[in-house]
Amino acid sequence: MFTLDVQRTAVICIDFQTGVFTGDCALSYVGATEVLPKAKGVLAAARAAKVPVIHVQEMHRQEMVDFGRELDGAEPVHCLETWASTQFHPELAPIAGEFTVCKRRYSSFFATDLEILLRGLKVDTLVLMGSMTNVCVHYTAVDAHQRDYHFHVIEDCCIGSDWEAHRAALNAMAYLQKQSRIQQHEFVEAVAQKALCL
Asked: Concatenated DSSP letters for 64-88?
């Protein structure tokens, strides 16, 4: 049975941006329709249990000076700060008391203040969900692992670029931490008892 010390845990929502769910983004995704209601359930459970929630948003300057090597691969220009599709999806957007982190690259840790925020919250366990499983979620998990955080990835709350890449990334994360892959219902059940005590 999956258990979680909610006092030392934060939920990290990675790039749940409008275009991911509306199809108005330059990138292609699989699984977004199925993920939306499940991710909403995770947020509701975390909020009820007062688990800190951190929303990470990939955003690039309109002058495109911060892409670096991102455009060398399969991805076209994406997530410009002036695009409506770059904004948080309204059904998964931060509410009062939650935190936001803007990133210019794939990992939520790279050149952001995420680690300062996590230290301030006194957490050592991260629960990850978001898009894309095989890029930003995976790279965030790797950086969390290398910083000695425990992490769990809610696999049915992650959106991949394609199904093969999605599954491969989940396997790669489980290679780093054996018990890292969980389902949405496991997280909800793990925090439900805490919510009843509040």
From this structure: -TT-TTGGGSS--S--BTT-GGGSB
Q: Is residue 113 part of a domain?
A: yes
- Taking only the tens place, the pLDDT of each residue in 93-126 is 999 999 999 999 999 999 999 999 999 999 999 9
191 burial type by CB count under 10 A (0-12 exposed, 13-18 middle, 19+ buried):
buried
Structural domains counted in the chain: 1
- HSE-up (13 A, CA, CB side) for residue 64: 7
119-134 in b/e form (b: 16+ CB < 10 A) is eeeebbbbbbbbbbbb
In terms of residue numbers, what domain contains 57? 6-197
Q: Which pLDDT band holds residue 198 (cuts at 50, 70, 90)?
A: low
Q: What is the CATH number of the domain that holds 177?
A: 3.40.50.850
